[in-house]
């Protein structure tokens, strides 16, 4: 039988139940905002993104135990560094692919025109 962890660590079953409840509520709100037609059509995507980011933060805090407490700070720093590296690598890769696409061949020229030009 599980018992709640000491208040100093805060990693108990009750904390997971709160996280699950909040995640479930945010999922239902996102679903309801789309299917219930309670959000204007042009605000559907921002609403879903908002609920998604809120759910991400809830899960990071309640399930991955990330925070600013001294015992959580190291994991939080590792996550921030990992996300920063992923953003840099993916962002630069997309930038290189975009520039390669733009600079490869003019859009107004077909492949046959390019072959006959040579």
Automatic annotation (TrEMBL):
GO biological process, one term: aerobic electron transport chain
Signal peptide: none
UniProt record similarity statement: Belongs to the cytochrome c oxidase bacterial subunit 4 family.
Compartments in which it is found: Cell membrane
Pfam family membership, one: COX4_pro
Identification of the protein by name: Cytochrome bo(3) ubiquinol oxidase subunit 4
Keyword NAD carried by entry: no
Native species: Gluconacetobacter aggeris
